[in-house]
Amino acid sequence: MRRYLVLLLITVTVWAQTGLDELVLEDGTEYLGKYLRTEKRLVYFNQYKSKNERLARIISIQDVNTVQLSDGGSIDFESHKKIYPKQYKN
Q1: What pLDDT, on a 0 to 100 scale, did the predictor assign at position 4?
Q2: CA-CA distance, 44 to 59, in Å (whole number)?
Q3: SS3 label, residue 82
Q4: How many of the other CB atoms lie within 10 Å of CB of 64?
Q5: CB–CB of 71/21 below 8 Å?
Q6: Cβ within 8 Å of residue 79, ≥6 positions away
Q7: What pTM value is reported for the model?
Q8: How far apart are CA 82 and CA 70, in angstroms?
Q9: 56: helix, coil or strand?
Q10: Exposed, middle or buried, 31 (CB in 10 Å: 0-12/13-18/19+)?
Q11: Segment-wise mean pLDDT, segments of 10 residues, the chain, 90 residues
Q12: Contact 27, 66 (CB under 8 A)
């Protein structure tokens, strides 16, 4: 059991250090990449498929569940502002 806990902690630590934003759609599809902006009810997101390959995605706000930023914040689509948990508040 202890082995699995250590493996889980290592995996989470490595994943957390990727510095990538995460976009989750309403259907559960997840993309890792860089959140660019929200404009005219569209979300602009660069998906990183591999180290050298990027795919630009433009997705309607109504299809997006959440955008989790690499710095710990998230996007509020009503106000188009970044939201941070209390410990990260700037």
Answers
A1: 64
A2: 7
A3: strand
A4: 18
A5: no
A6: none
A7: 0.68
A8: 12
A9: strand
A10: buried
A11: 64 61 92 90 87 85 90 80 65
A12: no
In this structure, the strands spanning 64-68 and 54-60 are unpaired
Q: Which two tokens stand for residue 53?
A: 């390959």
d(CA 31, CA 24): 7
Residue 4 token pair: 């699995």
Distance CA 83, CA 90 (A): 10
Token pair for residue 44?
């602009």
- C-alpha 56/C-alpha 70 separation (Å) is 18
Region of residue 83 (left: phi > 0; alpha: psi -120 to 50; beta: else): beta
Yes or no: say if 54 and 33 are a contact pair by the CB < 8 Å rule: yes
What value, to the nearest 5°, has the Cα angle with vertex 24 and ends 16 and 55? 85
